[in-house]
Amino acid sequence: MPVPSDSPPYPARPVQPDASVPSLVIVGAGPRGTGLLERIAANAPDVYGGSRLDIHMVDPYPAGAGRVWRYEQSPLLWMNSMAEDVTMFLDESVECAGPIRPGPSLAQWAERVRAGSISPPPELAGEIGELRADGFPSRRVQSAYLGWVYEQAVAALPPGVRVHRHPYRAVRVTGPLDGRQRVWLDGVAAPLTADLVVLALGHLDSEPDPEQRALSAFAARHGLVHLPPGYTADTDLSALRPGQTVIVRGFGLAFIDLMVLLTEGRGGRYESDARGRLTYRPSGREPLLHVGSRRGVPYHSKIGYGWTGERTPLPRFFGPAAVDQLLAGPGPLDFRRDVWPLIAKELGYAFYHRLFTAHPERTRVNWPDFEEKYAAAAPASAELDALVNDGVPDPADRFDPDALDHPLSGLRFPDEESFQRYLCDYIQADLDRRADPRHSPDLAVFLALLAVYGQLVRIIGSGRLTARSRIADLDGWWHGFFSYYASGPPAPRLRQLLALSRAGVVRFLGAGLTVEADRERGVFRASSPGVPGKVEATALVEARLPGPSVHRSRDRLLRSLAEDGAGGEEMLRDGDHLLPTGLLAVDPADARLIGRDGRPHPRRLALGPHTNGRAYAAFARPRTNAPAFRQNDATARAVLAFLGERPGTARLSA
């Protein structure tokens, strides 16, 4: 599959706005832009009345899907969520001012396709026909769903509100604070004019940081291959040769995509025996992958069963009242000291509520007594540890976030082969546990993590966290822990990983991975303190997404905003120093861009993972009060209210 061009084939001339009609330009027609459009359609009758309005959607990639979820990518790449856990529509759980307009989840959409009420691309008919609610669809199926959602959002707009698609790349925004804005498109002389501009740019690439530039320069000098952080589906992997020894730094979802594209994507195949055990049959075109990371293990497998029985009453210890108390206290907040103990107690409560109510035979005391003492015990205290040790006899039935976060801590292996066997057993045990409802407290923790994320938005928006804690603890450690526990790969991917290990295509490096550039030998070298020996390689792949950076962004629009001073990188004060987060600074109240002068721009807004607005996922699990949905609704209402007050707004006749 070719790497997407930075200059897609554009139409000859875009449709220019009518200056007499209020206009909104949304840069980014992917899932976030589509979600905003849906909220505009839902709120327009109440907030905007009968005004005419032109909405201009600017994106070189397909509407609805955008770049990441576009149809034109390998059919081997899957979603990381079950079909029943993906929706673009609000439900009764979402706390917002606008009306709720329910719609189908991805699984329900697939049911409508099978019933004949929706026509998918013909080449997807077979996959959708076999897709179950608990199945993991390909990204191309998600692309079709997102495209359909976009079409529904456009169709739901009231009369007089028109949508214009511009399949171009926006490269700059200019205009005064108190006047219409101009959105410049790549290769087009005349800009689009707008009363308001919303940036919904999605996930963006960044230029390599100094460390990555040094590694690339080393590779160039010695004839090696270095692939810096990036989106695996968009990375040119042709430089990795058959049989070449490759060090892979990163064991998360980017690695899983890499693994797929370099094995099945190069003609390998899997065979399954009567017991379901996979054997990998190489094509001979695969490189040899040596993979490691800080933890040294892959992300936990997705849980393979659903919830039954009594629901855990969440939140309990990290809900609105607890956040109010934290924010009412004096002084700055430290995430590890002030916030994490409450989160850990919330997660533990979810775990033990499920254990005591669904599996009481594995406990020593009754739940009401345990719950009362658990609530009274201080977070992260010896009293709490003693309570758990007395009430839960089997250590495997205790919630231990430190052990979860450092599964290889303190382990030393006599040789490399011992570690290979150990890690294969570890992965198999994880697969077994995540498929066994006897361990349903794990699912309770997963649901609690989702609830915690919603509460954290308030703490981040308050600005009370210290700069170093925000960057190192929240954006660094916490986000990584959440992804490791709750955002791992589908179980079949880890079964494939085990088959690749048995076939000798993948080797495990260990925890605490270090990578060196050996100038004397002209190779990359990787090692782990827990595993003897070192691996030399002629290729290094950084299997992770690029970190956010306004100034190093490859998006010309984002860089130009920073250069013009109209949209700056968020800077956090740490004593006498300012620390950059890499994120585009926006006003947490209404998502308006913060300029270099510290003032919010009245006519420019931004939503998405490139901002400090903190709602990462553009789509969500149903019934989780998703922060992105709440932001979309609030932004849509603010946009419509502003445009409705525009002088000379043309009203439709009754």
UniProtKB/TrEMBL annotation:
Record Pfam families: NAD_binding_9
UniProt-listed InterPro entries: HpyO/CreE_NAD-binding, L-asp_N-monooxygenase_NS-form
Superkingdom per UniProt: Bacteria
Name recorded for this polypeptide: FAD/NAD(P)-binding protein
Domain FAD-dependent urate hydroxylase HpyO/Asp monooxygenase CreE-like FAD/NAD(P)-binding: residue ranges: 25-203
